Amino acid sequence: MASLESLTEDLLVRIYKGLASDADRKSWRLVCRDFHRIDALTRSSLRVLRVEFLRSLLANYPRLDTLDLSVCPRIDDGAVAVLLTSRGSPWAFPRAAASSLSPPGRDPLAWTRGLRKLVLSRSTGLGHHGLEQVIRACAYLESVDVSHCCGFGDREAAALSCGARLREVKMDKCLGVTDVGLAKIAVGCGRLEKVSLKWCMEIGDLGVDLLCNKCVDLKFLDLSYLKVTNDSLQSIGSLPKLEVLALVGCSLIDDTGLQFLGGGCPLLRVIDMSRCNGISSCGLVSVAKGHEGLVQLNASYSLTECSSILLRCFKDLKNLNAIKIDGARVSDSAFKALSNCTSLVEIGLGKCIGATNLGLMRLVSGCVNLRVLDLTCCHSITDAAIFAISDSCRNLTCLKLESCNMITEKSLYYLGSFCLLLEELDLTDCGGINDTGLEYLSNCLELSCLKLALCPTISDKGLGHIASKCRKICEIDLYRCNGIGDDALAALSSGCKKLRRLNLSYCSDVTDRGMEYLGQLEELWDLEMRSLFNVTGVGLMALAAGCKRLADLDMKYCENVDDSGFWALAYYARNLRQINLSHCNISNMGLCMVMSNLTRLQEAKLVHLNKVTVEGFELALRTCWVRIKKVKLLAALRFKLSSDVRETLHSRGCKIRWD
Amino acid sequence: MATSRKVTLLSSDGESFEVEQSVAVESITIKDSIEEGSAGNPIPVPKVNSKILAKVIEYCKKHVESAKAEDRVDDEDLVAWDADFVKVDQATLFDLIRAANFLNIKSLLDLTCQTVADMIKGKTPEEKRKTFTIRNDFTPEEEEEVRRENQWAFE
Q: How far apart are CA A502 and CA A532, in angstroms?
C-alpha cells in the first residue's frame, strides 16, 4: 500500500525532520490530524508573531526548547502573568481556549519545564517584575536574550540573576545596567559560559572583575564599546576557558593590557580588537605569541601599521584562519609575510594604504585557500590583481571591491571564468564596470549577493544577463544606478525568484510597470525605493498585493504615491515591521489606516508628512501605541502632540526620535 | 577476520539469499543476533519480502564495497548511486523504509526518509494528500484554525 500514513509514527517523524523549510512544515501540519500531531510533538523552536496565539501555541507544543518573542508585540508584564497562570483566561486572549486539536488534560505550564532558550530582544514593554516571573518559572532555562531592551537596568539584571542554570546571557544595549547589576548576575548565575554586554556603557572594570572571578566557565565574552581599561584585561586573563573575546571600540585599553592577555586565557581562539585606538602591533605580538591556537584575529582600524615582528608571528599560528587589518599601512614585505600563512581563509585589507597589485599577487600566490577577501577602497588595484586573485584562489566565495574604480569588465571576465563558487561580490562605486562585465559575471551561478550601488554605467541589459543565469540571487543593491529601469525589474522578477533584499533608491526611471514586476517576487522582504518619482498609488498597490512577506519598506521621497497606494499597503502588507514614509504625500486617513491595520509594525519614520495634521498624528499614534517600538517624528511636533500620547508611548517603552 | 564467511538470509516469503557476513552486518539487527549466537542459519528476516530484501542487500553490498575502496572519488559516485537506488515506485520506497527500520540500517533509513521528504517539498497540503492517498480528517473549523495559525501566529 502506497500510503504514507501506514508508516509508524517514529518513521513519519524522521520524514518530517527532513523538511527544512518553514513553509513545508506548515503545509505538513495542514494535511491531516496525525500529521498535525507529529508537528506538534516534534517542533522544537517557535517564533511567535502575535500575542493572541501565544498561550494556545505554548499549550500545543510541549517539546519546545526555544521560544522567540522578539517580533511579538505587546509582550509586557500583563502578558507574562497570563501566560504563567495555570488556568485559562479567555477574556484576555480570546483564542486561548483549548483547541479541539490539542489532547485533553494537557498541563498548560508544561512548556516552562522544557524551555531552554528564550529570546526577548526588543521586548521593551517588559518590566523587571514580568521578567523575574518568567525566569523563575522556566527553571531549566539556559539561554536568555534581552538585547536592545534599552530601558533595562539593574532591576532587570537582578531578575535575570534568578536563573541559576543560565549559561548564556545577551544584554547588548541594555543601557541602564551598571556594575551593580552585572555583579548580581555574576553571583546568581555561576555557570555562565557566554556573556554579551555590547554598549552597556555603565559597566566598568569593577563589574568585569567580579564577573571573571565568579564565572570561571566563561568561554565567550563581548565587552565591545565599554569603557573598560587594562585592569579588565588583567581580570579577563585569569579566565581559564575563554575562547572568544570581543573588545571592539574599547578605546581605553592599550598594549599594557594586551600583555596581561598574552599571559592568560590559554584556550583563546578568536579575538576581535577592531577600532581600539590605543593598541599597536606591539600589543598584538604579545597576544599572538602567547596563543598558538589562535584562529581569528581582527584588528581592523586599530593599527596604523603592521610591524614586521607581528607579521613574522603570524607564521607560527598554524591554525590561523582569518585576519583583518583594515586601515593599516601595509608594504610588499607585509604581503610576502602573510603569504606564508597558507591556512588563511579570510583576509581583511579594507582601506589599507599600500595595497598594490604586486603585493596582492604575492599574497595570493601563497594563500590559495582564500575564500573571503576584503579590498574595499584599495584604490590602486587594477585588473591585473583580480586576475591573480581569481587564478590562485579558485574557492573564492566573497570579494569586496568597493571604490576600486580602476577595475573594468576584464576583472569580471576573470571572476566569471575562474571563481565559479563566488557567492558575494561588492562592486559599489566601481565606475569602470559595464554591462559586458555583468554578462561575464553571470557565469558565477552561485552568486547570491551582488552590490552595484553607484554604478551609473550599468543598465537593464547587464542586469538582464545576471537575472537570466544567477538563480540563487537573494540580495541586489542598485542604489543610484541611473541606468536601471523597468526592464531590469522584469528580468529580476522572472529570473531571481529567491530575491529577498533589493535597493532601488534613486533609480528614477522605475515606474508603476516596474512595481508590478516586483509584485511577482514572493520572497521579497526588504525593499528600499527612495525617491522614485514615477511610482504612483497603482504601483504601490501592485507591490503590496504581491509581496506578502514584505517586512521592511523605505519609500522616503516617493512623493507621487497617493492614498490609494497607502490603503492597499494597509490592507495587504500584514508582515510589515519597519516603514519609512518620510516626505510622502499620505493623508490623515491614509496614515491612520496604515498605523492601525499593520499590527506587526514596530518601527515607523514619519518625518515631513506635509498632508498630515497634528490631529492626524495623534490619532495614528493612538491606534498603535500598544505595539509600536520606535517612531521618528518632526521636532516641531514635540510640543504640539498631547502629553497623553507622549506619556503613553514612553511608558510602553517606545522610543521617539525627534528630527 | 571472518570477512569471507557467508550467511544465509531467509525472506518472509521463503526465499534464501547468501551474502558475505560483512555485508549482512550492515544491519545492526542481524549483527546483534549473530553476535548473541541466537541466529540460526539461515537467519530468518520476517516482515521483509524477497523483492525488498534483494534491494536492501544490493544497497549494503555497494556501501561495504565502497568503504573498502581507498579512492575518494567514490564519494561522489556513491551519492549518485544512492540517488539512482531510490528511484523506485512509492510502494517500494515505503517498504524500504520499513525494512531499513526493522533491520536497523541507519544510512538506508536516512536516505529513504530524506527521499520521501524531498518528494513532498513544495507541495500544497492537498497535493501531499493526493500523492500519498491520505484522507483529510480535519473538521472545517479545525482546518480554518490551523490555517490561521500558519498565516498569522508563528514562524
A: 14
Question: Quick one: closest CA in B to A29, which residue?
Answer: B146
What is the Cα–Cα distance from A510 to A206, expressed in whole angstroms? 57
- CB B94 to CB A31 under 8 A? no
Q: What is the ipTM of this complex?
A: 0.90
Entry pTM: 0.84
The shortest CB-CB distance from B94 to any of A2, A27, A53 is to: A2
DSSP conformation class of A48:
B
**Cα nearest neighbour of B88 on chain A:** A2
List all residues 6 or more positions away from A380 whose beta carbon is below 8 Å from its beta carbon. A355, A356, A357, A406
Contact flag A53-B154 (C-beta cutoff 8 Å)? yes
**Would you say A576 and A604 are in contact if contact means Cβ atoms under 8 Å apart?**
no
Chain centroid to CA A493: 25
Instruction: Let me know: does A513 contact A538? Beta carbons within 8 Å.
Output: no
Using an 8 Å Cβ cutoff, are A426 and A376 in contact? yes
Q: List, in order, residues 6 or more apart from A455 with CB less than 8 Å away.
A: A427, A428, A429, A430, A431, A433, A481
How many angstroms from the chain centroid is the CA of residue A4? 39
How far is residue A558 from each of residues A455, A524, A569, A611, measured CA to CA in Å? 22, 19, 14, 14
Residue B112: which residues within 8 A CB-CB, separation 6 or more? B86, B93, B96, B97, B100
Average pLDDT value over all residues in chain A: 91
- Judge if the upstream peptide bond of residue A266 is cis by omega within 30 degrees of 0: no
pLDDT band at B122 (very low <50, low <70, confident <90, very high): confident
Q: Which residues contact A539 (CB under 8 A, 6 or more apart)?
A: A511, A512, A514, A515, A516, A561, A565
Find the chain B residues whose C-beta atoms sit closer than 8 A to any C-beta of A.
89-91, 94, 97-98, 101, 109-110, 113-114, 116-118, 120-125, 128-129, 131-139, 141-143, 145-147, 149-150, 152-155
From B82's Cα to the closest Cα of chain A, the distance in A is 17
Q: How far, in Å, CA of A365 to CA of A362, rounded?
A: 5
Look-up: residue for cell 483547541?
A99
